[in-house]
Design a protein that fits this description.
single chain, mainly alpha, de novo design (two linked rop proteins), 4 helices
């Protein structure tokens, strides 16, 4: 069976951010928001794997894409306010980028196949 890299990467993102939040001393709202958005990426990708239809799958992927963008925004805020260091920021931002690129390609394919 082929590896589902989208699921693997989204689980890695949610896990790494959860562990980061557990040891971070950033404002509680920021921690709450990044925790919520990164776990939503993972949850929506998992749900998409059992979508009721291709349209449902597309909808879940599009939500995950928006949540991934939000996660990147919170990472940038944390970096600019010294909540995380540059290495952590770049590693997590790159992981978001991988997820985003796969999601964009998957959404494009689903839309083309719907025609």
């Amino acid at each position: 069976m082929a590896k589902n890299y989208l699921l693997i990467f989204s689980e890695q993102l949610a896990t790494e951010i959860e562990l980061l939040c557990q040891r971070m001393k950033a404002p509680s709202n920021t921690v709450f928001q990044i925790r919520k958005s990164s776990s939503s990426v993972y949850a929506n990708i998992r749900e998409a794997n059992y979508g009721q239809s291709k349209a449902d799958m597309l909808s879940k992927f599009e939500i995950a894409l928006k949540e991934c963008s939000e996660t990147e925004g919170w990472l940038q805020l944390l970096y600019k306010t010294n909540g995380i260091n540059e290495e952590t920021y770049k590693n997590l931002r790159n992981l978001c980028g991988r997820i985003r690129r796969i999601l964009i390609a998957s959404c494009k394919t689903l839309k083309e196949n719907a025609k």
